[in-house]
C-alpha cells in the first residue's frame, strides 16, 4: 500500500467518530451506528453500547462483525469515489472490573466526554472490536486489502 493510502486509512480511523456496525440479528444482517475509538496498539476499535440495543445481543450471540467508516462528503466527490474502509472484527465484551476496561473507558471518554453519564448506567458496556482485516477504498481503482502483519504495520504508525 502506498504512503497516501496508508495516511488515508489512518486518518479515517483516527478522525471519523462514527461507524456503521453490521451484526447478525436473528439470522438476518442488521446495521446500526456506533461512536468508536481506535486503540491502535491493541488492533481494536472500542465501542460503548447499551444492553438494550439489539446490536449488543447480536455481538454476544455472534461475535464476528463488520464495521464501515467513511470519509465526510464534500459535495464534489462522487459517492462511489468516497474514501472508506470496511473492517472485519471479533467483538469481545470487556469485563468492567478488568484493567483493559479501565484503559478503554479512559480512552473512550477522552474522545467522547459527553458519554460520562452513560458510564453511570448499569446496562452499558464496552466491547473491543478486534480487527482482523480491512478493505480500504481510496477512490476509483484504488482498493487495498489488509490483514495480519500488513494491517498491524499501518496501525503501528498511529499514535496510541
TrEMBL record:
<dbReference type="Pfam" id="PF01243">
    <property type="entry name" value="PNPOx_N"/>
</dbReference>
<dbReference type="InterPro" id="IPR012349">
    <property type="entry name" value="Split_barrel_FMN-bd"/>
</dbReference>
<dbReference type="InterPro" id="IPR014419">
    <property type="entry name" value="HutZ"/>
</dbReference>
<feature type="domain" description="Pyridoxamine 5'-phosphate oxidase N-terminal">
    <location>
        <begin position="9"/>
        <end position="136"/>
    </location>
</feature>
<dbReference type="InterPro" id="IPR011576">
    <property type="entry name" value="Pyridox_Oxase_N"/>
</dbReference>
<protein>
    <recommendedName>
        <fullName>Pyridoxamine 5'-phosphate oxidase N-terminal domain-containing protein</fullName>
    </recommendedName>
</protein>
Amino acid at each position: 500500500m502506498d504512503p497516501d493510502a496508508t495516511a488515508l486509512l489512518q486518518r479515517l480511523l483516527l478522525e471519523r467518530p462514527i461507524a456503521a456496525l453490521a451484526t447478525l440479528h436473528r439470522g438476518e444482517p442488521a446495521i446500526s451506528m456506533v461512536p468508536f475509538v481506535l486503540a491502535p496498539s491493541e488492533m481494536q476499535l472500542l465501542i460503548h453500547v447499551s444492553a438494550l440495543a439489539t446490536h449488543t445481543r447480536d455481538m454476544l450471540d455472534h461475535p464476528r462483525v463488520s464495521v464501515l467508516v467513511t470519509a465526510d462528503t464534500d459535495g464534489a466527490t462522487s459517492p462511489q469515489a468516497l474514501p472508506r474502509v470496511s473492517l472485519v472484527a471479533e467483538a469481545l465484551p470487556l469485563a468492567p472490573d478488568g484493567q483493559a476496561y479501565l484503559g478503554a473507558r479512559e480512552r473512550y471518554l477522552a474522545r467522547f466526554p459527553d458519554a460520562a453519564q452513560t458510564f453511570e448506567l448499569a446496562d452499558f458496556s464496552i466491547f473491543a472490536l478486534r480487527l482482523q482485516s480491512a478493505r480500504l477504498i481510496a477512490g476509483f481503482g484504488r482498493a487495498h486489502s489488509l490483514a495480519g502483519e500488513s494491517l498491524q504495520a499501518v496501525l503501528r504508525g498511529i499514535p496510541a
